[in-house]
């Protein structure tokens, strides 16, 4: 089915209204992914839209989501809610609540950094330098946001500065340095 739409002549471009986007998203949620007539059924819920337009709109949506997930698109600061695994979240609202969370809603705990992520962080630190958290996040540790990288770096540098007292402390991922 997808091959048919890839080979079809491009449809005349008409901007999608917000109402159409909402109906499109609702159709995607309710219709099975692999239905042979999926795009015809999606278009049936969108007056004035063809199955070709629905399929192209879906492909554009998938491409946009991919760019966002890869960090290739600058997103608003309020989207950087994630914490770096230490239980402290980035606060991005003026009321002191983490961005995107309603009152009383439980915040999910962060995922600790793996040794592999830390080594990628060290490689990125060497390549892009101290303070370039966005590029380290974008090109070295792609699984973490710039905020998470900055927080991890802060803890790493504190741990390195206090290296003299390390013998009495438990081991940490921050003890790993470049060879």
Automatic annotation (TrEMBL):
GO molecular function: DNA binding; DNA-binding transcription factor activity
Intracellular or extracellular location(s): Nucleus
Transmembrane segments: none
Domain SANT positions: 113-161
Domain HTH myb-type: 105-161
Record's keyword terms, sorted: Activator, DNA-binding, Nucleus, Transcription, Transcription regulation
A Gene Ontology biological process term: response to gibberellin
UniProt domain Myb-like: residue ranges: 8-62, 105-157
InterPro entries noted in UniProt: Homeodomain-like_sf (IPR009057), Myb_dom (IPR017930), Myb_dom_plants (IPR006447), SANT/Myb (IPR001005), SANT_dom (IPR017884)
Keyword Transport: no
This protein's GO CC annotations: nucleus
The name this protein goes by in its record: Transcription factor MYBS1
